[in-house]
Amino acid sequence: xxxxxxxxxxxxxxxxxxxxxxxxxxxxxxxxxxxxxxxxxxxxxxxxxxxxxxxxxxxxxxxxxxxxxxxxxxxxxxxxxxxxxxxxxxxxxxxxxxxxxxxxxxxxxxxxxxxxxxxxxxxxxx
Length: 126
Hints:
Shape: flat
Order of helices and strands: HHHH
Helix content: over 70%
Distance between the termini: 66 Å
Structural class: mainly alpha
Largest sheet: none
């Protein structure tokens, strides 16, 4: 029985350390200029969403679009830092990797724009 309790304690400690590392990653992300833009955009969208009194389903679409962009930006930042680490000198393939990860953010942002247009356009203009 003691062995099982020790396993749970060790597992809990590992989970808490993982959360601490994730929190550190969020702090790093908050210092990125592009992510600051995403935060400002998110705040604007949240204010408009509250003002327009979105339905639960609309909130789900808007919040999922925001999350997709944030996650894409986090992966993009991680990939860019990794590329800089493994290829500090100019390398066309390293540039391609960075461009592809930036494209993922652009695609996520375009998805968010489509969601925004579908939800906000009829409420504002129709």
